[in-house]
Amino acid sequence: MKTKVCSKCKKLLSEENFCSNRASYTGKSNWCKECHNKAAIEWNRKNKQKLNLKRRIKSKEAQKKCIKHYGGKCAICKTSESKLCVDHINGKKEEGVPESGRDFWFYLIKMNFPPGYRVLCQRCNVLDGALRSHPLLHLSGIDELIQRLNIPC
Q1: How far apart are the C-alpha atoms of 4 and 18, rounded to whole Å?
Q2: Is the pTM higher than 0.70?
């Protein structure tokens, strides 16, 4: 079993305790995993605002990319002015698919924009959900009913 000295804590440890690093001639990091993890936790603590801003920006970019891919405007009222979201067509939610938010946007991108989703404005999404859950309404004409209601976004 090969050993190596951590350049941070100076402990002699087996190579299993070091992360892989292709840039290093040994193929292993100079710091042990424990030192690396401690440094990462400390850096994240000191740079929390920067990390949160980066996450928000990435999430917003992913959301815009998904909305653009699925049409860029509400599938029912055709508005692109109101707050838009991506909706499961016919309310079908698959197991393992995040409900909403950042994880949902990244899931859609990772899965190469699977079919079964559409863009809805907030008004049409709320109406669609309420009408689909009503036991006396038939599902086939809900989009047309929402259009006829003509409630401004």
Answers
A1: 8
A2: no
The sign of the CA dihedral 28, 29, 35, 37 is negative
| Contact between 65 and 104 (Cβ < 8 Å) | no
88-102 pLDDT tens trace = 876 666 777 887 788
Per the structure, how many domains does the chain have? 1
pLDDT value for 90: 63
Going by the DSSP 8-state scheme, the letter that residue 153 receives in this structure is -
Residue 129's nearest CA partner among 98, 95, 96, 85 is: 85
Beta carbons of 13 and 32 less than 8 angstroms apart: yes
The span from the CA of 20 to the CA of 85, in Å, is 40
| Helix, strand, coil tally for the chain in percent (to 5) | 50, 15, 35
Q: Is residue 110 part of a domain?
A: yes
| Domain carrying residue 96 | 71-149
Question: Per the structure block, which two tokens stand in for 93?
Answer: 């939610």
